[in-house]
Specification:
alpha+beta, Cyclic Phosphodiesterase, Chain: A, four-stranded antiparallel β-sheet, 4 helices
Length: 181
């Protein structure tokens, strides 16, 4: 089992899911979200992880984000970007990857807060260990045009996060606990 820590969007979910339903292989598993702790092995200990997350989150207060703009990631995800509130999310991410989580920080992958809209790889992809692969270029270009036409630009208030568990195959996700700020 793996654990992750996310912020689930509350507004414009149906608009985002219009695109995700076509291009995101995880569309049926999880709502649109921003990941702050990427899938981490259960070896860290569920209670230790909960305590660590609670300690970090308790130091923060609610903040606003603005989602706008698109970008392709190094592993060929089409992402909706965070234009405001980005620094707060980065700070929280960096603080979460201290203490019991420090060994799991991947310095080889820069953290850029985003909402994944679709994956465009040729071949296998693992959320547990993403690696660079070939892009499905035509499919990506089609999705990019659709996303640009959607003209995503909205705001919402971040006032809590969720600890989730993923099975070892990445085919089932369960909510474990909500953390309010």
């Amino acid at each position: 089992m793996m654990h992750a820590f996310i912020y689930k969007l509350k507004t414009n979910v149906s608009e985002i899911n219009q695109l995700r339903s076509k291009y995101d292989p995880y569309y049926n598993l999880i709502e649109p979200h921003i990941t702050l702790i990427f899938p981490t092995p259960d070896s860290v200990g569920t209670q230790e992880l909960r305590d660590h997350v609670q300690q970090i989150v308790s130091k923060h207060t609610p903040f606003d984000i603005r989602l706008s703009g698109l970008e392709k990631s190094w592993d060929h995800w089409l992402n909706l970007l965070i234009k405001e509130g980005n620094q707060e999310l980065i700070k929280l991410h960096d603080e979460l990857y201290t203490g019991v989580m420090a060994p799991f920080l991947r310095n080889d992958l820069p953290f850029s807060p985003h909402v994944g809209l679709g994956l465009f790889t040729q071949g296998n992809y693992s959320v547990f260990n993403p690696e660079a692969s070939e892009i499905a270029g035509d499919k990506y270009q089609k999705a990019l045009k659709e996303a640009e036409a959607m003209n995503y630009d909205f705001r919402e208030r971040v006032d809590g996060f969720e600890l989730i568990s993923l099975d070892d195959k990445g085919t089932k996700i369960e909510s474990r606990e909500e953390f309010r700020i």
